[in-house]
Amino acid sequence: MKLTILGGGGFRVPLVYGALLADHAEGRVTAVTLYDTDADRLTAVARVLADQAEGVPDAPTVLATTELDEALRGADFVFSAIRVGGLEGRAADERVALDEGVLGQETVGAGGIAYGLRTVPVADALARRIARLAPHAWVINFTNPAGLVTEAMSRHLGDRVIGICDSPVGLGRRIARALGADPDRAWIDYVGLNHLGWVRGLHIDGRDELPRLLADPELLGSFEEGKLFGTDWLRSLGAIPNEYLHYYYYFNREAVRAYQDAEQTRGAFLRDQQEGFYARMKDPATPALPTWDRTRAEREATYMSENREVAGAGERDESDLESGGYEQVALALMRAVARNERTSLILNVRNRTTLSVLDADAVIEVPCLVDANGAHPVAVDPLPYHAVGLVTAVKAVERAVLDAAATGSRATAVQAFALHPLVDSVSVARRLVDGYTKAHPGLAYLNRA
């Protein structure tokens, strides 16, 4: 099988390749094509992959190209992990928002909207290209904002595009470990949108163990989300939120203040860190894999550091720094589809009739049963009222972003910002659109009334 990785010069690509190296079953991926517009980054990542493959029998071959059509032809799976505007764009997204006193995180709030307005037109064009050149390929989307971009691509690819995220998987594994259970045996009752969901149950051998966790303050406070949100708040919710809900309502004011007070934003940190990595990799004498691994470890250790500081959560646990996130989800998804190895995964898929508060085409994040015919969302209980408000409001924002990207309407872009729960003023929304169009020449298409 051939796997094409769009954004193949991206820093996290070696995680995907490492997962492929561990797969020796019949029908595995035997060829990987890396596509990126940046030839230097492609060369750097290809060097890391070559180090990973050393001594591995029958390692998947690697081809790096800056030609999109060459990359897509003959692909069985397409993994999309593009970053429109690069990390410089992310840093600008964060700074413009913080200057207006609102959150600028990459997938949440004003920053997520700006990133979506830049990314959706590109993702839309990619989906059209894939439909033409690789109509039988399955597309696995990791491009952020993952739910929004998956929905944009689904308008051309239907159910052949599936969004993945490592956040729900990591949350479920942490809960299972806190309960002393094997994470691989757990069924996670999770529902929401990407980066906006809640674990409402964790079933081991048919028994829901979440009530036991919620009833034990010591256990509840022993893992990342317990430390981040506080045990009292989790017990009052009766659920465990995705870590990104720390930004949404729950502790938004504290998060904004922490990011305003930080020496640099997360995007600026990653921009500087990865620019350093790629610069070092231009020297042929630089050991590729160790250099990448050290950079990755620093990246993971500092993840959501401002939020943990606000909550007094301390450093991340060692188990949270281990690999096994989205790359394992991607590999399990490919195995299930290519070999009909039926499995259950939390994925971003079209709603159909799963959540009654949303229409059939809305992309949601829920447990799915996966087989050779794709991912099928599992019926879930209705959303609690506290979740309905957030989910429907954010979905309305996503739809406004899609409409603005399709029409070039500045008024619709303003609406997207103004409707978001974390933007508290239409005047601020208008200034955000002005600020982002000034910071990003690619948003010049928003020029209609």
Walk me through the structure:
The chain contains 19 helices and 13 strands. The chain has 449 residues and is of the alpha/beta class. The strands form 3 sheets. It has a 6-stranded parallel sheet with strand order 3-2-1-4-5-6, with helices on both faces. Strands 7, 8, 9 and 10 form a 4-stranded antiparallel sheet that branches. α2 links the parallel β2 and β3. α1 (13-21) runs parallel beside α2 and α1 (13-21) crosses α16 (326-339). The chain is globular, with a radius of gyration of 21 Å. The termini are far apart.
Describe what is shown at a glance.
The protein is α/β, with parallel strands linked by helices.
The backbone outline, from C-alpha atoms, is: globular
How many helical stretches?
19
Report the end-to-end length measured between terminal Cα atoms.
47 Å
Unreliable residue stretches: none
List the helices and strands and how they pair.
Blueprint: E1 2-6, H1 13-21, E2 31-35, H2 39-53, E3 61-65, H3 68-72, E4 77-80, H4 86-99, H5 109-133, E5 138-141, H6 146-157, E6 161-163, H7 167-178, E7 186-193, E8 196-204, E9 207-208, H8 210-214, H9 217-220, H10 224-229, H11 231-237, E10 240-241, H12 252-261, H13 266-280, H14 288-301, H15 305-311, H16 326-339, E11 343-350, E12 363-371, E13 374-377, H17 385-407, H18 410-419, H19 426-439
Parallel strand pairs: 1-2, 1-4, 2-3, 4-5, 5-6
Antiparallel strand pairs: 7-8, 8-9, 8-10, 11-12, 12-13
